[in-house]
Specification:
The structure is a single chain. The protein is built from ten helices and twelve strands. With 350 residues, it is α+β, with helices and mostly antiparallel strands. It folds into two domains: 83 residues, no CATH class; 241 residues, 4-Layer Sandwich (Deoxyribonuclease I, Chain A), CATH 3.60.10. A six-stranded mixed β-sheet has the order 3-4-2-1-12-11. α1 runs antiparallel to α2, α2 runs antiparallel to α3 and α8 packs parallel to α9. It is globular and about 80 Å long. The N and C termini lie far apart (67 Å).
């Protein structure tokens, strides 16, 4: 009797976990403007997924014939699981038309040491197109950075704290993308990429605006939880995260309008989206374009390295004019609290 009750209890817990996973996926179809706080549930998707996988092991050990329950629950949303944690065992070969693109939140490079690390990385990477966020309006005009740029074939466009460095000539000035924001920015431009007009959008979508002290408060809550600190930290986080999520939803809609208007041209959309693969923003872009990491990356691929906040929030999407031959995250770069995403794309033969 007790054994039957225990099995029923664990089965109920497993089914609840599956429903929560499915709810996370369902919320990616709904703008965070509609349910700002509920949309934050998507951040817990990896937790629900991990619990579901543990249930597979549990059932295999104690009731093997029920192992199909967590497996079936995961298979229903298998595509979204691969968005979050893709697996690839081989890469596509490069071609003569392969280009390298980097998207990197440089973290404002506020110190001379950070600037040196940034220039060293960009020089070593030798990418064809570099999309930078939080670069600061004066960083690239400082003597050391200017001297380096003058020694390279890079053309530069900058708007607010976003910049694009391109070995290919620009066909336009910056195209401002109007969306609601408190301080963040996106801009587009046209690039002559080996004779093709390439439409590229560099984004830094709405930040969560958590101060270092607030992030430390959250971290301390994880390390040394108590009822009062958890309540205070949760209220602060819920308010700021849900407000930022609502902004990002509207921003993604504005950018997608530009993507649709230029659907006949090769397109790249990248940057710090401040959202994970299980989010409205990511899935909106994935509806129109292909995620480079989804196509050629491996594992969860965290691009934000702040302690207790391991997430992949930096992304690159491309139109079906391209094949992605490789996509990796360079965790050796230490000039920012983000890691750069390095993508190689080859033009499809028509």
């Amino acid at each position: 009797m007790l054994k039957r009750f225990s099995i029923s209890l664990f089965l109920g817990a497993n089914l609840c976990t599956i429903v929560l996973m499915w709810l996370c996926v369902a919320l990616t179809f709904v703008s965070p403007n509609v349910f700002p706080r509920l949309s934050l549930l998507t951040l817990a998707f990896p937790v629900f997924l991990a619990v579901d996988l543990l249930f597979v092991i549990f059932w295999l050990l104690f009731k093997a014939r029920l192992a199909w329950v967590p497996i079936a629950g995961a298979l229903v949303i298998g595509g979204y699981i691969l968005d979050y944690c893709p697996i690839h065992f081989s890469s596509n070969p490069d071609t003569d038309s392969t280009i390298t693109i980097i998207t990197y939140n440089a973290g404002k490079a506020t110190t001379e040491e950070q600037e040196d690390h940034l220039i060293q990385f960009l020089n070593t990477a030798d990418a064809d197109i570099i999309c930078l966020q939080e670069i600061g309006l004066r960083v690239l005009s400082k003597p050391k950075a200017k001297a380096w740029l003058d020694s390279t074939p890079y053309h530069t466009l900058q708007a607010s704290n976003n910049a694009i460095l391109s070995k290919f000539p620009f066909l336009s000035d910056t195209i401002h993308i109007d969306f609601p924001s408190r301080s963040n920015h996106s801009f587009a431009c046209w690039i002559d990429c080996n004779g093709d007009s390439l439409f590229i959008v560099n984004n830094h979508l709405e930040s969560n605006h958590l101060s270092p002290e607030e992030k430390d408060e959250y971290t301390n809550t994880i390390i040394d939880p108590n009822r009062e600190s958890i309540r205070n930290s949760s209220q602060m986080l819920m308010g700021k995260l849900s407000e930022a999520a609502a902004y990002r939803g509207a921003q993604a809609d504005s950018i997608c309008a530009h993507i649709k208007r230029n659907a006949d041209y090769p397109t790249i959309v990248c940057g710090d989206l401040n959202d994970t693969p299980i989010s409205y923003v990511y899935q909106r872009f994935a509806h129109h374009l292909t995620s480079a990491y989804r196509e050629a990356g491996n594992g969860p691929g965290f691009t934000y390295s702040r302690r207790s906040f391991p997430v992949r929030i930096d992304h690159l999407f491309y139109s079906d004019d391209w094949n992605c031959t490789s996509c990796r995250i360079d965790r050796a770069v230490s000039s920012s609290d983000h890691y750069p995403l390095i993508v190689r794309l080859s033009k499809k033969e028509r």
